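RETRY 2/3 - previous attempt timed out on the joint model. Re-submitting the same 727-residue input unchanged.
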Amino acid sequence: MKLDIKLSGVGGQGILSIATVIGQAALTDGINLKQAEVHGMSQRGGDVQSDLRLSTEPIYSDLIAKGGVDLLISMEPMEALRYRNWLTPDGVIVTSSKPFVNIPNYPDESAVLAELAAIPGVISVDIEQMARDAEVPRSANMILLGLAAPHIPILSADSLREAIASIFARKGEAIIEANLRAFNLGLQYSTSL
Amino acid sequence: MSEKRLLLGDEAVALGALYAGISGVYAYPGTPSTEITEFIQLSPQGRSGEVRSRWCTNEKTAMETALGMSFAGKRALVCMKHVGMNVCADPFVNSASTGVRGGVVVLAADDPSMHSSQNEQDSRFYGKFALIPFFEPSNQQEAFDMMAAAFDLSEELELPVLMRTVTRLAHSRAAVVASGQMRAQNKLDPETETANWNLLPINARRRYQVLISKQGEIAARAEASPFNALELGPKGGLGVIACGNAYNYVKEAAPQGISLLKISQYPIPAALVHKLADHCSSILVVEDGQPFVEEQIPALLGAGYKVEGRLTGRLPRTGELSPDNVAAAFGLEAKTSFAPAEHIAPRPPQFCQGCGHRDVFTVLKQIYSEYPQGRIFGDVGCYTLGALPPFKALDSCLDMGSAITLAKGAADAGLYPVLTVIGDSTFTHSGMTGLLDAANENSDITVIISDNLATGMTGGQESAGTHKYEAICLGLGVEREHLHVVVPLPKNIEAIAELIRKEIAYHGLSVIIAQRECMQTLARKQRAKKATEK
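RETRY 2/3 succeeded.
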């Protein structure tokens, strides 16, 4: 069994925290993993992406081939569209629907959302609003992970919960609680679709 | 003892070096190498000071300090990004002549595709140039395992050893099993044959002969290396040479019927290449970076043997390897099912909100509009973004420390007005010497040191000269009345612009230090403070 995930967003939105949680869960479960990131200049408010590969078999390449992404998790709708053509025919997109506009030539927001909505099976949710409503405003990325969790069959929801608890352990009980709540919220929403 | 951890390639290198018993890591931050030193700094051995790990002023000071530690008998690791090799080339190349006492491994992290660099030079050329053994790990586990082997080889052959990685290994995570005992550090055991380290021509000629005489042994080690491996397929098929990280893309594409030579230890194992060539009808060389191996194969096999790769166009001449371009080299078609989306726009990196460089460039944009015939020479760091919209107020970025010297040369030629912008860490890295040249001639340039009290671009590491810039400038001969310290804030923009106009009107050397802390390091300190208050 294998799952190739691409994570995308804007520098500073927290896609690497999502990758860290999935990575921790994979390590505990004995699932092979490779995760390529780009650091340095591209982190400064530019587009960022990371390839995360999970498999029960050995993994060679750190990068996913074009057309090989099973699951695209994005913190921003236009950044989800950017990698649309990397998906397998039945690949899934799970994304935040809230545009992050920090460039003067950001395309028409309604056109971005319309193009996204036209993709079959896309899960597009305003996770920031959801996070504020649930009073976990800093855990929107864990809501996104919860939304994606049913599409990561290689790892159980419990493994991901344990990983959240271990990754946020040094930040204290309250932060662990908030992130777990956010994750569960996303998971519930996703399974109710 | 055995531990399994999820590590970046950089972190695997660092852990490998700790297991190999280093006494120090010497480095200047540079993407994609930075996390090696940071991992050691945060390790128990780094925190306790048992392993020295403070950042160096530049790659040359790093290399030389490591050699000093080696002279005293202990093991040292030197880390840098590929272009750092240019900065330390002098001690690096000469250390092959002096030889080493304690093991020395030099780690150069290359950046094919220039994700965060100004070129994609291939550090393997430096290994060949210096006539020393060099390694190129293919994955995170091998990066860990190789470190001990590299330090052992360095001490056995009494030579520095080079290790080359690329971005996709340095910044990719995988599980690494660290097994065995951590080797104890070497005891203090200073060099007794000091003539070997004293490269007067009479000694240098002798030492160069010694280096040449070791070449057979260096080659034999690569030939027998456990990191090089030949997998023979059906006779008469395609032979593939895959170097370091490239091995993964070849295995991923998994073309049928090939024979595969993996090279991770150099010089090129000639006997293995001959074995591959004899078994196959032609060879495809898959290597990240420049066509280093591909260029050398015809000298081994003769011009009649068909060799393909980046030079022949079967792989792209520039840019990093990917599963896609390697699969294409095997004639495999891409599996893309969808067309690119329509409503997307590029999102280039930009200054952080509230960054002091932003205010500096707001001023410079204004100044530029007033003096369109003038030029502003820039340097390497976050502030290089000042060249992009909306500022477009920077005319150069050549190499670390080049801003002031480029400006001086342009002013010598008669260009006026000439301004330069250089970051604090870049200034101490290698801009200071150029300022001395400018001070000695009282060059007609206006230097702005954009001081954010950190090495910002690479993540906010300490900057070697923090709180010393005024003293340094005065010491180098900048006149007191033309040395100013300002705080780049929106409310000060008009005053700073006025000061720059005044200094442009002065036909001599002026330095303006624009000083305000990096927003990233400031935020980090505030978070840490909040956490301790709780």
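Chain B is about 40% helix and 15% strand. Closing ticket.
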